[in-house]
Structure formats: structure tokens, C-alpha cells
Amino acid sequence: MNKSKIQLTTSCENIEIKYIFWTKKMKFFRLLFLILLCSCETGAQKVENTPNDKSEFEVQKSEQEWKDELSDLQYYVLRKAGTEPANSSPLNDVDEPGTFVCAACGNSLYETKHKFESGSGWPSFDRSIEGSLALSSDTKLGYKRDEALCGQCGGHLGHIFNDGPRETTGMRHCINGAALEFIPDKNQD
Ligand code: FE
User: What's the 153 CA to ligand 1 centre distance in angstroms?
Assistant: First the structure.
């Protein structure tokens, strides 16, 4: 074998080694990417359900059916994402043990034991009943807010802020009373 042939073989071997190394490197990054993707998805699932559109909710009714079943205020809040006037809901004053259910579909959403006086003028809770909500977001006021939806019918309930009681969850679910109905506990005297 002459000198030029040896040099050519050596450079081919170098290219091959570099190619194998590059392929292994790419496999490593692909694996890393997949691991990161999976961990992000797991994190998202920890929050609550976040349906892409309202057709994914279990309870489905036509707009006319919702209009017929709900009061004007309930329809405005639950189906049009409206907000009731502050301090207008009789549910602001409820402090007896019981459950707050969705006024549209009856889904159990909140319990009195997690209600607190926030001073906002709307019924406030530091947490929902686990798995009862779906979360979305809106930018109606020019900034992003976490929106609380009924996990069963997709009705708009209110918004969730992170300025709740520090001694419990630190969260404040600011909920329209018109979106709720209160069912007192049966066992109380
Ligand atoms: Fe509902």
C-alpha cells in the first residue's frame, strides 16, 4: 500500500469514527429531549384537566338549553364568562358546613371548610374539591389570569390567584356566587 492510500484510509476511518460518535451524541440528545417532554407532561397533569375546547366536557347542552335552564345572571356568568357585581351574592355570607355545587350541572366544587373571607366581595376558597375543576386562562384584562371552569360542564366559575391565606394553600379561588348553589350538610343539628 502506498503512502497516499494509507492517508486516504486513515482519513476515512476518522470520518467513520466521527460519524459513529455524532450518531451516539444525537441519540443521547433525542433521549434527553424525550425525558424532558415526559416530565413536562407529567407536571401539567398534576394541575387539573385542561380541555382544549368545550366539546370535551362530559355535560353538553345547546345554548338554547342553557338559556332555558339558567337564570339570566347564571347564563351570563357560566356560559358567557361574565362577572357578577361585587358583594351581590348571598353566598358570600354562608359559613355553615356544606358543599357548593355548580349551578349548571350539580358538580360538587367547593366545601365551606375551605371558604374564607378575602374582602374581595366574591365567595373565596383556598382550594377546590380535588378533580372537580378544569383550568383555562384568559387575558380579558390585558394580563393572563388562571380561569376556573367546572370540570363537568365547562361553565365559567371565576379565577384563581396566588394571594390566598399563607397558612393554608396560599391560593384564592375567587368565584362568582351565581355559578354556585349551596347544599348544607345533612348531619348538622
Ligand atoms: Fe358544571
Answer: 4
Q: Which residues are catalytic?
A: 174
User: Residue 58 half-sphere exposure, CB side, CA atoms within 13 Å?
Assistant: 12
Q: How far is the CA of 166 from the centre of ligand 1 (A)?
A: 29
Distance CA 125, CA 173 (A): 5
- pTM for the full model? 0.73
Query: Domain 54-184 class?
Result: mainly beta
Q: Tell me, in angstroms, the distance from the centre of ligand 1 to residue 54's CA.
A: 12
What distance in Å separates the CA atoms of residue 139 and residue 148, rounded to the nearest whole number? 14
φ/ψ of residue 134, rounded to 5: -120, 145
Mean pLDDT of 105-120: 98
Residue with cell 379565577: 159
C-alpha cell at 86: 361585587
Find the 180 Cα to ligand 1 centroid distance in Å.
Answer: 9
113-154 tens-digit pLDDT: 999 999 999 999 999 999 999 999 888 888 889 999 999 999
